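#lab-general

N.A. 3:47 PM
ok so I finally got the sequence cleaned up, no stray characters, all 296 residues accounted for. can someone with queue access submit it? mine expired

B.Y. 3:52 PM
send it over

N.A. 3:53 PM
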Amino acid sequence: MDTSAIRHDTITANGIALHVARLGRGRPLVLLHGWPEFWLTWEPVMRRLADRFELIAPDLRGFGDSEKPDLQPSDKAGADVHAADIVALLDALGIARAGIVGHDVGASVVQVLGRTVPERLTGLFTFDCPYPGIGPRLAVPEMLAEIWYQSYHVKPFAAAQVGASREGCRLYIGHFLRHWAGGNPAAFDDVLESFVDNFLAPGNLQGGFNWYVSAQAGRLAMIRGEAPSLPPIAVPTGIRWGDSDPLFPLAWTDRLGETFADLDFAPFPGLGHFPHREDPDRAAAAIARFFERLPD
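B.Y. 4:20 PM
back already:
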């Protein structure tokens, strides 16, 4: 485990200021977080990989210490916008090709990158990946109690309501971090206050909720069975999926091959939605094994 200090930079990319946490040296890996997360979610994995890889963990636009260009509800924070930010970040860092690791929101960004700039990617890796093949299963009756928050986040009052008090924000963010971590509900307990601090910072709740505002039309199309047919991604892709994830059941992996043409898939027994936090040893080992077998 690497114990050196994580470096923090602010880098202008695609016209906005992105906060980036960096650690290690070697082949570059860009780590893209989900919601309700920011760069800190990756710290345990970063420290376990820093002897072999250069780890680059940006806060996506609207999250963490990155710029919040839209302080009100906005549909300008979709996967294509985040992907353009990441390409510009690679350009700003002088990185010709990198591996991309994504989770949740980041896993959706991974798919755009895989289709639009495959020449910039050594490989793709995700945990518990939202993808078009889930289709109408997203909203079957037994899932409605899990996906309610996606509809709530598009309400114009949601950020103000969640952020009205520290205790209210802690209860809200803490619920997801514990409930979705099916293999280790205490996975975020040691950093929960840092997560609350993060989401109470001006603009951060709405910044995260803008992902859901931006994704709403696509989500409804998926539920109606009208998601557009997209070409499969040819970039080598590794996916590990927790079999105890209440949000993305393991049964939903059955159509991954339609989206990822070169797929290395395996379940993660005993883990939920956040393998990188629930069991960072296993998560880091899986990431390393996947990328170490690929050419630079």
